[in-house]
Amino acid sequence: MSTTGLVGSVQHRDTGRETRASIVLDGHGLTAEDVVRVSLRQNTSVELAETAAARMVRSRQLKLELLDTGQPVYGVTTGFGASADRQISVDKAAELQRNMMRFLRNGTGPPATPEICRATLLIRANCLARGNSGVRPLIVERLLDLLRHDVLPMVPERGSVGASGDLVPLGHLAAPLIGEGEILYRGSVRPASEVLAELGLGPIELEAKDSLALVNGTSFSAAFAALAVVRAAELAAFAETATALACEALEGNRGHFAAFLHESKPHPGQVASARRITELLSGSQLALEHGQVVGLSTVLGERGYQRLNRSVQDRYSVRCAPHVIGVLRDTVDWARHWIETEINSSNDNPLFDTDTGTVHSGGNFYGGHLALAMDALKVAVANVADLLDRQLALLVDDKFNNGLTAGLVAPFGEDDWAAGLHHGFKGMQLACSAVTAEALKTSTPAGVFSRSTGAHNQDKVSMSPIAARDACTVVDLTREVTAIHLLAACQAVDLRGTELMGPRTRRVHELVRTLAPFTAIDRPMDGDIKALLGAMRDGSLLRAGAAEGARKNRPAGATSARPATVHMTSDL
């Protein structure tokens, strides 16, 4: 346990060559970024705060005192769910908990990724550290032991309706604590009992309430949600970078992003998005200020009509980009707040109030806030995918791309043998459209699909794990859309002349060209997409587009999307 007294925050320890972060769990101060750091094993240790351990001891003592009175306590000396009217004697309580850990292990589908398992272990430990669940500090310490040794339970993704919490996946997650189930350790799936014996971690003898405290909560849903919201914040910045490049490629009007316009409709995300696109386009000779666009045409004078040399207004997918991306930025802000409330809550049942000496049965396991946050987030993210797909459609279509070639093919003379043989980014646009359609389809809200379960005890449920898993999927799909868009936009500005780009967009172009060459003739580009997705994951893409001072001073892993944002170095 920690003796530092630093609770609910991150402590940085100088180890000589690098800084090691220490997250101290107290049930109150865990952040979404903390969850991501631990999920990716980014040089971060996790400890239980002394104050939290003391609260847990008091809560457990109250539980034991209440059991001595002989009164029924839900899930402790009664059955679960619809069996709450069946009381058992105290001497049966431990066996009841062991049976619960077993009858819930029936999940289906693919196993959750290591990132999700680590995130879930951390969140469940933090929720129990709040000290209202009646369990010993040993329970949290063993969850942290699994994290420290990277012993990851095999947890099927499917089987939870989000109330009473994530019972089935958390049943699989908790099984190694009693030496059961399978785990992933050093690349191999093995029986938990074997690995824990090697590590000197014997099975825990369960007490009354222990299993219920471990499985009756929202931590599996919250793990997906925390990772989704951090990645969605990055997507907003990626989309702004892509929009700036598209605006240059289309010889657009950067006056659409003027501060006056967006401060006149001051949604914070919209204002921030317009500001960042403006900064990215600063100095561009391709995307001009409104006055410069107007100045390209002669004064109408006495004439009654003329065709302008350049339109004074771009299509919606460029002009309204801050309005679309701004919705995502603002959705991320409130969704993050809801998620961080959830991961710092006591969300099992029942809970023990040590101030009054009472036990309370309730429904904090209900994942409604997570479900709505994720349903909203995936809609906002999918709209960004659609925005970028529409921009790409303009780039590749010579009816709308303001003089670029059809499909962004390299120009060939009519007498050149290659003339008419190549289609450039036509196939990329087709793939992007398919990925976008999948993102839009997957954005269907899950929280409205409540199903009555458990003999109609759980007759209204949240569907939070499905909403959160879908949100992660939509984020991944939208990153693929963004990668294809950026490759096409860089091809387009090559055709325009990169010397006319703004300094910041030019650095983005230079980075892309280190990963993917100009497409002079038709060739497979799936490798280009993968390379660019890697630059999105490791943070190099956003660093390339950052202001010069920020690029020099920015620590590794930070982005311009949000201070100290953690980059996702592994896909879900």
Automatic annotation (TrEMBL):
Keywords: Lyase. GO terms for molecular function: lyase activity. CDD domains: PAL-HAL. Residues 546-572 are annotated as: Disordered. Gene3D superfamilies: Fumarase/aspartase (Central domain), Fumarase/aspartase (N-terminal domain). PANTHER family: HISTIDINE AMMONIA-LYASE (PTHR10362). This is Aromatic amino acid lyase.
